[in-house]
Every structure is written in structure tokens, then in C-alpha cells.
Amino acid sequence: MSRVGKNPVAVPAGVEVKVDGMTVRAKGKKGEQSVTFKGDIALALADGKVSVKPTSDSKQARMMWGTARNTVKNMLRGVSDGFKTELEINGVGYRANVEGKTLVLQLGYSHDVRYPMPQGIEIKVDQQRAITISGANRQQVGQVAAEIRGFRPPEPYKGKGIKYKDETILRKEGKKK
Fold it and tell me: Boundaries of CATH 3.90.930.12 in the chain?
């Protein structure tokens, strides 16, 4: 029995939810999302809560039970509050700024790195060193943050590069004479 899946997901205030068979649609102040699941689970909306149940006792149905419940929970939280990831830039001459719908990064390469903002994602830069990525889709926010971090991951000797705000870099000792 899934400890995560058996708990129903409460619908936040200000969010409209519709369940049509295997499809869940949610609409809130941050946007609108929908997700369709395979036939291994059953979805129900009652008393302002979305509940997920497996349709059989197969291994696949039991695996998808908790996954589907957390997907619905993230979708409802995304359309009501949204998700946010923060990145920091460390290094001399490394900086970022936003030009229209493009994030421009200067990371020590011979050229600027230009990253177009995907649909549904908002990127803000504070003092050229802090990047805030926000949006309604948790997976998309995390993917964009990982792609931006991938342009110049932090290196272990001086700690230069782009890192998550709460990430700690294990530093290495340099050469000895």
C-alpha cells in the first residue's frame, strides 16, 4: 500500500479542478494545466479533494499510484502558488541580464550565451549575480534551471560558475609546491 498515494490532495482556494476519466484539469491564478494518466489508476473528485486509487494490484498500478498523486499535488500547487528556483553566479566578470524574452549570460567564454525563455517561465535577474526562475510547472522550472546551470557548472577549485542558491560546492585544494 502506498503511503503517499492513499492521502487525498486538497484543492487550494481559488483553483478550479475538473476530472474527466483519466484527465485532470486545473485552473488558477498562475495559469492552467492538465495531465492525462494511463489506465492503471482511477481519479475521483469529492468534497474539494482529489483522490487517486489503483485499478488493479499489479506492480505497475502500485508504482503509478503515488506518482500520480504527487503529479496532481504539484499541478494544483503550481496553478495556485507557482514554483521558484534560485541560481547564483560566482566568478570575476560573470554576469547575467534579461533582454526582452532572452537571458544573456557572460560566463568567461568568447561569446555571450543567449537562452530564450520558454513559454510559461519567467526569469528575473537581481544585481547581475542572482537568477530567479519561476513558473507554474514544477518539471519545467527545474529543467530550465538545470539547463542554465549546465552552461557553466561550478568548478571545485575556486567555486566559479552557476550554482543553485542552497547548493554547497565541495572545494578541493590546489597544487602544492
Answer: 9-80, 83-164
Give pLDDT tens digits along the chain (177 positions): 668 888 899 999 989 999 998 899 999 998 899 999 887 899 999 888 999 998 888 888 888 888 999 999 999 999 999 999 999 999 999 999 999 999 999 999 999 999 999 999 999 999 999 999 999 999 999 999 999 999 999 999 999 999 999 999 999 998 887
3.40.50.1110, 3.90.930.12, 3.40.50.11270, 3.40.190.10: which CATH number matches 83-164?
A: 3.90.930.12
Beta bridge partners of 50: 9, 45
- CATH architecture of structural domain 9-80: Alpha-Beta Complex (3.90)
Q: Is 21 exposed, middle or buried (0-12, 13-18, 19+ CB in 10 A)?
A: exposed
| Cα(147)–Cα(26) distance, integer angstroms | 27
Buried b (16+ CB within 10 A) or exposed e, 114-125: ebebeebbebeb
User: Which region holds residue 7: left if phi is over 0, alpha if psi is between -120 and 50, else beta?
Assistant: beta
pTM as predicted: 0.87
